[in-house]
Amino acid sequence: MTPALATGILVGSLVLAVWALTAALRERWINRGQLALAAVIEVAILVQAVIAASRMIGGERAVEQATFIGYLLTVVLLLPAATVLAYMEQTRWGAVIMSVAGAVVAVLMLRLQQVWG
């Protein structure tokens, strides 16, 4: 795990969560900017996952290996799944889905850092 990248993902996902929640409260659907931010966050998550996988192959281990792998798989798959669902639900509830996904990604990144340490 790279702490700086994890922190960037955490902050970016919180920004996405607040931005999407603001859209939901205004009864709006997600916009292209939010989709672009979700894509940037997902690329950063994939980079972090590759780094973590290469370090595990190299011999480093997380404190709880199975938990770490579960969190890592969840964080990689969550944002794309939520984006598809949010895109299919073209009401304010799509923005709510994106907001919740952003908050969950932030929590997962925090837990990944804790379990790795």
How would you portray this structure in words?
Helix 2 (32-57) packs antiparallel against helix 3. The protein is mainly alpha-helical and 117 residues long. The protein has 4 helices and no strands. The mean pLDDT is 94. It has one domain (3-116). It has helices at residues 3-25, 32-57, 65-88, 92-116. The protein is 84% helix and 0% strand. This is Integral membrane protein. Keywords: Membrane, Transmembrane, Transmembrane helix. It comes from Luedemannella flava.
Can you summarize this structure?
The chain has 117 residues and is mostly helical. Helices cover 84% and strands 0% of the residues.
Helix and strand arrangement:
Blueprint: H1 3-25, H2 32-57, H3 65-88, H4 92-116
Helix pairs in contact: 1-2, 1-4, 2-3, 3-4
> On the 0-100 scale, what is the average pLDDT?
94
Shape estimate: elongated
Mind describing the biggest β-sheet?
none
**What number of domains?**
1
- N- to C-terminal distance: 9 Å
Whole-number radius of gyration? 15 Å
How many E strands? 0
Number of helices: 4
State the helical fraction.
over 70%
Keywords: Membrane, Transmembrane, Transmembrane helix
Protein name: Integral membrane protein
Transmembrane segments: 36-54, 66-87, 93-112
